[in-house]
Every structure is written in structure tokens, then in C-alpha cells.
Amino acid sequence: MTAICPGSFDPVTLGHLDVIRRAAAIFGEVIVAVGQNSAKNYLFDAAERVELVRAATAAIPGVSVLPLDGLLVDFANQHGARVIVKGLRFASDFDFELQMAHINHTVGGVETVMLPASSQWSTLSSTMIREVASYGGDVSAFVPPLVAERIGARVNSQGKERTNG
Ligand code: PNS
Fold first, then answer.
1. Does 16 participate in catalysis according to the annotation?
2. What confidence tens digit (pLDDT) does each residue in 102-137 have?
3. Which atom of ligand 1 has the smallest separation from the CA of 68?
4. Mean pLDDT over the full length of the chain
5. Looking at residue 52, which CATH number applies to its domain?
6. DSSP assignment, residue 26?
7. What is the pTM of this model?
8. Which domain holds residue 124?
9. What pLDDT was estimated at residue 94?
10. Residue 144 CB less than 6 A away from ligand 1
11. What is the position in ligand 1's atom list of the atom closest to the CA of 72?
12. Nearest Cα to Cα of residue 128 among 142, 115, 114, 117
């Protein structure tokens, strides 16, 4: 069975990878859908986020990565997937995901399965990683090595741009 793991992945974290790995173990095939959330200010553009998620999931059997434009349920139906998998950390995730699950079921007939985040990653967020990284902090405990490297390079080049006016 094919499941979709959607998200912004800005950047992809070890928490995301844990959920993707567990979803692949349950469903066999997982398509990671790398989307746009209009409310967000992105560190990496869509193509870079797809590239980084691809690199980070390359060794996980059954996982492919595609960009998501438009509605998630249309994407799921186009790819023959009946299930969306979401990782849940705390109650506020549940409140939001429940709303999304209802609307995605009503609009597209797609089910949502929520997996509790592993305790090790249960408070991790891409937002916090972006915040720490923007001040030059070390985020290598939370992201794959390639992502940490890219974040370092991005933050360095932004720092230089600021210094140069
Ligand atoms: O990591 P995020 O920012 O929570 O991911 C959000 C994403 C991309 C999964 C979500 O915004 C999404 O599904 N976007 C596609 C548009 C859509 O179908 N929205 C849900 C119905 S309101």
C-alpha cells in the first residue's frame, strides 16, 4: 500500500526521517510530498527541499520524493495513495491535524494515520532549527549531515550579504 508523508521539510529533520522510516515499514511504499505552506518564510526553496529530502531518504527502501503543488488529496489520488501519514508531537499538533484529516477525508476521500513522534524527537521542529541556525548555532544533532552542511553554507552566505550591505 502507498502512503503519503507530506510537509514543508524546511529543513528535513531527524524527526521527519523517523516518521518516514516507520511509515515505510508499515505501508511498504511512501511518497514524501514536499509542499508549500503560504504562511511560511522558507530557508530553502522548493527544489532544494526536494533535493535534501531525496538525499536524506535515499537509503530507506520504498521511499520516493516529489514536489507537491496544489491540493494534497489531488496529489494522493493521482498517485493511487489512500492514506496520509502525519507525525504527532504534542496536543497542538493533534488539534491542527484533526482539522486537516477531516477536510482531506471530506474533499478527497483520503484517510489520515497519525504516528506519535518518537520520544527522542517529540519536541523538535524545523522552525526552532531555522531559529538556532539563523544565529549561527549548531543544529547537527537534529538534522542529517548534508542538511547541517547546507544550513551552515546558507547562513554564512546570508551573513556575508548583510556585511556587504
Ligand atoms: O510541514 P507543514 O508546513 O506542516 O506542511 C504543510 C503541507 C505542505 C503538508 C500542507 O500545507 C499541505 O498539505 N498543503 C497542500 C494544500 C492542501 O491540500 N491543504 C490541506 C487542505 S486545507
1. yes
2. 999 999 999 999 999 999 999 999 999 999 999 999
3. 15
4. 94
5. 3.40.50.620
6. H
7. 0.94
8. 2-164
9. 96
10. no
11. 18
12. 142
Q: How far, in Å, is the centroid of ligand 1 from the Cα of 105?
A: 14
Q: What are 36-79's pLDDT values in tens digits?
A: 876 667 899 999 999 999 999 999 999 999 999 999 999 999 99
- Ligand 1 centroid–CA 80 distance in Å is 18
Give the count of domains, the chain: 1
Q: Does the CB atom of residue 88 touch ligand 1 within 6 A?
A: no
Residue 162: pLDDT band with limits 50, 70, 90: low
Give the per-residue SS3 of 67-100: ECCCCHHHHHHHCCCCEEEEEECCHHHHHHHHHH
CA-based nearest residue to 64, from 56, 54, 72 = 54
DSSP single-letter state for residue 118 = P
Q: Is 15 a pocket residue for ligand 1 (Cβ < 6 Å)?
A: no
SS3 call for 136: coil
Reply yes or no on whether 130 is catalytic.
no
Catalytic residue list contains 126: yes
- Ligand 1 mean position to 120 CA, how many Å? 25
pLDDT at 163 over 60: no
Number of residues that make up the chain = 165
Q: Quick one: which atom of ligand 1 is closest to the CA of 38?
A: 11
